[in-house]
Amino acid sequence: MPSDDWLLVETLIPGGEPTVVAAGAHPRHWSGLGSLRRVLGPSRARIATEAVRRCHAAGEPQRTVEADTVVVTEPVPCAYGGVHGVRLWAGSVDAPVPPPRRVAAWDWDADTELAHHGPGLEELVFARDPEQVRVIRTPPEAFGRMARFDGRIDYFAMVASIDDGGQWQGEVDMAGDDDEVRHFQMITRAVPAHRRISALMHAIPELDTAAPAADPDAAMLRAVSQSSGVGVGIIELTSALIYEWAGPPLPPLDRWLVERPVIAPDDLVALRAACHDLAGTPGAGRRLALRIRFAAADWITAQAELVAMSTGHGLLRVWSAGDGSPGRP
């Protein structure tokens, strides 16, 4: 390992075995800690493995010196107070320790459909001012910032099968509040015991050279949204998750852009059934009425039109019923 390389170790599964997922800016494919012997040599690998486990358990940076070797570890904390990753550097005691890789963590709760951003995540990914930082976000607030997500289909397949476990990692481009696009390695695991997706975002600007893969469905959805005059959501049909608003919902539904409203139980069942029914028939559509309620607000009836696309995703157009009738859930 070059002396200026840090390793990134993911610890996303509570009680699971850590794996190495990056060496410097270069992704690695879920390599067990035993792989450190090839990278560091047997002696340093032993010291490093023990240091990683101590750092993960303590949740604090560690500096270990044995003979002529120094090992530095830094935790990557999550919003729940745990540690989702450990940054690791090993070298000679007289070697300067380079700045650590920039990494932050997030979790997505499958039951609430809300994301929980760990310390430093929003500053790293969105270049967000500290006063604008929030811990809890809706999926569209994050996925709506993705300028490139070539692994979208495989990622959402893992999300849809969250109870089976699973893992996905790949490269994504994220648009910041400053309109700059930044390149990241996104490392994710499904955690069935907590019904969460847990993840690391690792800044890898050195690899920001790949051309985005064409996504004709997503491009078409965004084009349609620009002139539709209604809210246009991109929805994953297996889970009925709206993960991006290509066109913002209009009042009184505009809070849907940044909040997850309660959907009346009967209407949520109908929406999920429609997603299931249409998933195998691209181009097919269905009209729905959805009674929704935002926090500290009355029920609103939204009209919706669901159209299936060819990738397991769909277009959900929403607008206010306009009749002032909230209905009863």
TrEMBL record:
<dbReference type="Pfam" id="PF18007">
    <property type="entry name" value="Rv3651-like_N"/>
</dbReference>
<protein>
    <recommendedName>
        <fullName>Rv3651-like N-terminal domain-containing protein</fullName>
    </recommendedName>
</protein>
<feature type="domain" description="Rv3651-like N-terminal">
    <location>
        <begin position="5"/>
        <end position="99"/>
    </location>
</feature>
<dbReference type="InterPro" id="IPR041458">
    <property type="entry name" value="Rv3651-like_N"/>
</dbReference>
